[in-house]
Amino acid sequence: MTLRRRLLRWRVRWREGPSLAQGLPWAVLLLGLLLSLGLWSHERREAEIVLQRDVDAALHAASQRLGHRLDALQQILSAVHALAQAQEPAGGPALDEARLARFLAAMPLGIEHAGLEGLALVRWLPSRPEDDEAAPRALLGPLLPGPGPLGQPQDLWRDPLLRPALLRARESGQITLSPALDLRRWRLGHSPGVLLVQPLFRPAPDGSRRLESWVLAPVSVAALMDPLQAQLPRGLSLRLFEGDAPGDDTLLYQAARAPAGGLLQRQQRLLRGGQDWTLQLQAHEDYAPLAGRAEPRTLALSGVLGSVLLALLAWALAGSRERAQALAQRMTRALRESEQRWAFALEGAGDGVWDWDMRADVLVTTARWKTLMGWPLMAGEPRFQQMLPLVHPDEQPGLRQRLRDCIQGGVGSFEVEFRVRAADGGWRWLMARGRIVERDGREVPRRMIGTLSDIDARRQSEAQIHFLARHDPLTELANRAHFSERLQLALAHARRYHETLGLILVDLDRFKPVNDLHGHAVGDDLLQAMARRLKAAVRETDVVGRIGGDEFLVLLCGPVSRDSARHVAEKIYNLVAQPLQLGELRLELTCSLGLALYPEDGDDERSLKKAADDAMYASKRAGRLLLGTAGH
Asked: Which of 500, 527, 468, 454 is nearest to 597 (CA)?
C-alpha cells in the first residue's frame, strides 16, 4: 500500500507540472549520456594506442627472452669449445664422444635451455690432394642423448641444407645457426628445428689452425618457443618465421589453438648465427579484457548504465543518503577486491609486490616480498632505510645508484639484481624492478611500485657453467686454459716484485695398465683420489691443474726457495705412493716429478714447462725420485 500511494502521489505531481526536482533527473540523464558518448570516443582512440604499446612491449620482451635462451644455448657450445682446448690430448682428437657425454652429464640444464635435444660430434675428413677420387666428408656421430642407435655414420657435407652452415662456421670460426630442417632425418631430434654449429680447430705444426670437427646442438623450435608462449597473457600468440618475409612457406612456429585474425599484429626481426628470423605477435579479441582495459563498447554501456543510476540517485538524493553511503561502501569493497586479485595474481607467479610512498618513506609490501627479503611477517611494514641493511654489502652501492638514476636521472624505471641473507645462512639472488607511477606538480617523484623475483636458481646455473668451462669436470682441478691464466698472472706478479715461483710436473706411473685392466670407472676414481692428494700437499694459494690423461701441474706461488719446492715435491711423491683402497681393490702407484724454478730455469710459461718436462723424463729414466730441476 505504501508503494502504491507513492506512485499515485508522483502521478498527481507530474500532472500538475514539472518542478525543479522532477526535471533534475532528466537533465542528469541527458548530461550523462552526452559525457558517455564523448568518453566512449576518447577511450576508443586511447585503447587503440594502449593496445599497440602493450603489444610492442610484449613483443620486445618475448624477443629478449628468445635471445637470452639462444645465448644460454650458445654458452653451452662455448663451454664445449673451452673444454676441447683445455683437454686436448697429444696425438688424439681434441674431443671425443666420451668426453662430450661426461660434459653433458655434468651440465646443469635449466628452463633457459629448453629445446636442446643433446650434443653431437661431426668429424671433418678433408680430401687428399694425391687421391683424385677422395672427397671431403663430414661424418656425424651419435647424438648424446639421442633417440636410438645411429647406425652407419652419415656424411653431412653432401647435404644442401647443412653444408652452408658447416662451411660458414668453418670460415668464421664462430657459432652459426642452420636453416630450419627436420631433425628426425638425421636422428638428431624428435621434431623440426635448427642446429647450432660450433667449429673445433687444432693447432697445426706450421702455426696455423686446422679444422678437426664440429659440435652440433639440435634445438627443437617448438620446445624453444612454447615456454615463451606460456609466459604471455591469454589473447596474445607468437609466430616465428624464417627470413624477413613472413609467409606460410617460411613459418617455423605457431602457437597452438591460436584463433585466426586478431585486433593487432606486430613483428620484429632477429639476427642470430647468420640466420634472419622474424618474430610476430598477434593480439586477439580476448586480450583487452584480460589486460584490465574494458573495450569501448563496454565502456559506453557502462556510461549509459551509470547515467541511469546517477539520474535515479538524483531523484532519490534528498531522502537516500544512507543508500548512497551503502553504494559507496560496495564500490570501495569491489575496488579493494580488485587490488587483492591483482596482488594474488603476481604472487601466484612467485613474485613479491611493493609500493613505496617516497614522501613518508614507507613500503607497503606483500607476504611474498617479506618472505624473499627475510622480513618478519608480523613486524609490520618496513621503511626504505630499514630494507637496505638486508642487502649484501657488495650490492648496496649499486642498488643506491640505480635508484638515484631512476629518481634523479629521469629514467623513471630501474632493474637491479642483488643478494639477501637466506634462511640457511647463505646468500640468495633476487631481482627488483620498479617504476615511478606518481609525481607532484613540479615533477618530483612521490610514489613508486614494483616487483621482486627470485633468480637464485638461474644465477647458480650460470656460475656452474662458468666453473665447468674453466675446470676439469672429472677432478674439478683447473684445466689447461685456466692453469695457463693463473701461471701468466703469477709470472707477471713475480716479475714486478722480483719473486720466485715453482712449477712441478706430476706424471702417474703405470696408470694406463691399471686403466686397461680394471676399466675406466676405476681409472676415474683413481684420478679423483690423486687430485685430492695433490691438493692436500700444497697451500691454498697454490694452483693444481690437470693437463692430460694422467699428467698434472702444480704452481707454487712465490716466494719459493729450492729447498721449499723440493720439500713440496717429496710430500707429493710420498702422498701419491701411499696405498689406495677403491672398494675391494687395493692399488699402489708411484709418480715421476719434474721441478722448475722461475727465473732460474725459465722466464716464461713455455721455458718453465719445458724445464719441468725435461726434469720429469730424467726422473723416469733414472727409475727413482730426482728432486733436481732440468740441468741440475
From this structure: 500
Distance CA 264, CA 10 (A): 53
User: Which of the listed CATH numbers 3.30.310.50, 3.30.450.20, 3.90.180.10, 1.10.3860.10 matches domain 345-456?
Assistant: 3.30.450.20
Assess whether the previous peptide bond of 246 is cis (omega < 30° from 0): no
Residues 6+ apart with CB under 8 A from 216: 119, 120, 121, 122, 140, 188, 195, 196, 197, 198
Q: How do the domains of the chain map onto residue ranges?
A: 17-316, 345-456, 471-622
Strands (E), 58-113: none
Task: In whole angstroms, give the CA distance from residue 149 to residue 264.
Answer: 47
pTM of the model: 0.45
Rounded distance between C-alpha atoms, residue 256 and residue 267, angstroms:
18
- Using the 8-state DSSP alphabet, how is residue 378 labeled? T
Taking alpha carbons only, the member of 519, 530, 551, 425 closest to residue 475 is 530
Q: How far apart are CA 101 and CA 182, in angstroms?
A: 24
What pLDDT, in 10s, does the model give residues 239-263?
899 888 888 888 888 887 767 666 7
Residue with cell 603476481: 346
Burial class (CB in 10 A: 0-12, 13-18, 19+), 440: exposed
Buried b (16+ CB within 10 A) or exposed e, 293-322: beebeebbeebbebbeebbebbbebeeeee
State the Cα–Cα distance between residues 513 and 511, nearest whole angstrom: 6
Instruction: Kindly report, residue by residue over 543-552, the tens digit of the pLDDT.
Output: 999 988 889 9
- Grid cell of 547 as nine digits: 693437463
Check pLDDT > 80 for residue 345: no
Cell 627488483: give the residue.
432
Cα dihedral sign, 185-186-190-192: negative
Q: Which long-range contacts (CB under 8 A, 24 or more apart) does 407-410 make?
A: 407/358, 407/436, 407/445
CA-nearest of 603, 589, 600 to 628 is: 600
